Amino acid sequence: MRALAKKVGIAISAALIALLAACGGNNGNNGGGNASDNPSGGVRLQTVSFGDSLSDVGTFAPLASAVGGGRFTTNPGQVWTQLVAQYYGDTLRAAYTIGFDHQLSPQGGFGYAEGGSTVATPANLNNFLVDVIGDIEMPVTQQVSSYLAAHGSFNAGQLVLVWAGANDVLRAGTLPAAAPTVQTAANTLAQVVAQIVQNGATHVVVVNLPNVGLSPKGLASADGGANLTQSSQLFNDTLNAALQSNGLQGKVIQVDAFGWINQIFANFQGNGFTVSNTAQACDPSKTPHDTSLLCSPATYSTPNADQTYMFADDLHPTTRMHALFAQFVERQIASSGLGH
Q1: Superfamily of domain 2-335
Q2: Cut 0.85: pTM above it
Q3: Which of 7, 97, 246, 313 shows its CA 20 to 30 Å from the CA of 194?
């Protein structure tokens, strides 16, 4: 039995190391809360989500659950996409999951967002041990293509959530040399949004980048996050201009995560937090590989860290942050007229 346990432990460790690499390092169905338990104005919508780890509802759960993880937050808390889906009467499940076979397996869910994904750069261009885990990072362009291949089109009974670009900014390097990479990603994301609209979606939420420079990872960088803040702003400015030039601004609901999170930082205690963006809820000494994906109550810095800290690891929001953001998104959707 000991020999078997050792082999299983080695397999899990190897898988988690490969998994972490595929997710881009220290990136990050219960918990959290919503503005309401009822759909807004009685409206019920099927939710479809595209993006990266900020929206991933469990792509890596079959592996991460071995240590109590599953999503890039303070597990077992939910991420914002799950909460918004519940608000509109739906349950969002992963479209694909990865297991010990290191392959993405379709699950029939509509949560296409995957940790580590960029807007359009294939995984095999990012040197994340693809020889070990497989070419599993599905960029947003491929996520949308995969959805369309399986379902043909979008429809008026769906709410489509799009949030991507953070990994492009994190991997782009330092400005001004990084500018073309950041701008290309933003322009490509606008093209993806246009594809979604052209294929029948009528309720599309497009979220811009938060201020990545103010994350613990940004603050710990040599310039205190200045480059990541400027890159985030450049991405957002480019995305906004591209949506406008493509005639999409009146056809989508734009959510300003950058402005929202800056306000949360400025008044973190008033928003129910006791620890700001200077520390993380998942204790680095207890959490495997120091990533929120593998964070659980057993690895919290304090018993209620999921509610009192802003960040789970050095990049990803805690359960409470996700819940507050979900409420903000729900208000933006309501202000667009949906449910009224």
Answers
A1: SGNH hydrolase (3.40.50.1110)
A2: yes
A3: 97
Q: To which residue do tokens 């592996």 refer? A: 63
Alpha-carbon distances, residue 74 vs 142, 158, 237, 289 (angstroms): 28, 28, 31, 14
Domain residue ranges in the chain? 2-335
DSSP for 33-74, written as a single string: --S-SS-GGG---EEEEEESTTT-SSTTHHHHGGGT--SSSS
Tokens of 39: 């759909």
**Residue 312 Cα to chain centre, angstroms:** 13
Calpha distance 302→309 (Å, rounded): 9
Decide: residue 335, CB within 10 A, 0-12 exposed, 13-18 middle, 19+ buried. exposed
Between the alpha carbon of residue 55 and those of residues 51, 132, 166, 171, 317, the distances in Å are 6, 25, 12, 19, 11
Q: Are 63 and 98 in contact (CB under 8 A)?
A: yes
Q: d(Cα 214, Cα 261) in Å, to the nearest integer?
A: 9
61 CB-near residues (< 8 Å, 6+ apart): 69, 70, 71, 94, 97
Helix, strand or coil for residue 212?
Answer: helix
